[in-house]
Amino acid sequence: MSRTRLLLLDDHTLFRAMLSRLLGTDADLEVVADCSTIQEALGALSQDSVDLVLLDFDLGKKETGFQFISQARRAGYSGRIFIVTAGMTDAEYVNAFSLGICGLFLKHSSPELLVEAIHKVMAGQTWIDQRCIQALANSISANASRPRQNELTDREKRVLKGVFTGLSNKEIGAQLNVSEASVKSALQQLFSKTGVRTRSQLVRVALEEYGETLSSLHFEP
User: Fold this and answer.
1) pLDDT in tens, 154-179
2) Which of 36, 118, 133, 179 shows the greatest Cβ crowding within 10 Å of its Cβ?
């Protein structure tokens, strides 16, 4: 089994060094590039095969993670992008998902949790820090103007919560005491109602269209 190839983009040298040492202890992960600027990272992407970019949002010198995402996609990078940040505004969280990121992780969480999150997103799941979800949902709910065409059933809401908390279909089924097939069915209904095909897209659309519903789910940190 090949290792996940990682690129780190963060303007803080000490954080990158700490992160490189941490990830180097996992036999399934390999840091192939360690970058402090967007141009440096774009150059590394053109030379190395990268599965996942760990991206800081505030890169200093008036550079942001959004600029990197836009330029990397234009340059042809189609791999996963995972934002690891000290913090962003609610609007920036929503915008990040609209750009197709696979997750959000706050730096003050534990290093061990970050390793777990990396494995989750590489397995096709979406990771969003629990401390972001409630503020995100409340913000979108307060500003939502587009009417919802498809209300969610109770099971769909609970499956959606599982997606937001980074659980696999099997883990969601165990939590809800239903079969994995039932979870897959509810997930397909969610995809159909929101018009998406992936979990990352589902998170973005759900935040935009079902902010009030997500707020009612009472996510815990």
Assistant:
1) 888 888 878 876 678 888 888 888 99
2) 118
Q: Where do the structural domains in the chain lie, given as residue ranges?
A: 4-124, 134-215
CATH 1.10.10.10 fits 134-215, yes or no: yes
Give the whole-angstrom CA distance, residue 31 versus residue 4.
8
Q: What would the CATH number be for the domain defined by 4-124?
A: 3.40.50.2300
Which tokens is 189 given? 């209904």
The owner of tokens 């696979």 is 102
Residues in the chain: 221
DSSP run (H or E) holding 83: strand 80-85
Alpha-helical regions (H) of 5-110 = 13-24, 38-47, 65-74, 90-98
Based on its alpha-carbon atoms, the radius of gyration of the chain, rounded to whole angstroms, reads 17
Question: What is the tens place of the pLDDT at every residue in 25-53?
Answer: 999 999 999 999 999 999 999 988 999 99
Q: Nearest CA to 70 among 36, 101, 43?
A: 101
Q: In the block, which residue shows the tokens 């079902």?
A: 210
The pTM of this model reads 0.71
Measure the CA dihedral 46/50/51/53, to 10°. Answer: -90
Angle of the 180-194 helix axis to the 169-176 helix axis, nearest 10: 110
Look at residues 159, 153, 110 and name the one whose alpha carbon lies nearest to residue 131.
110
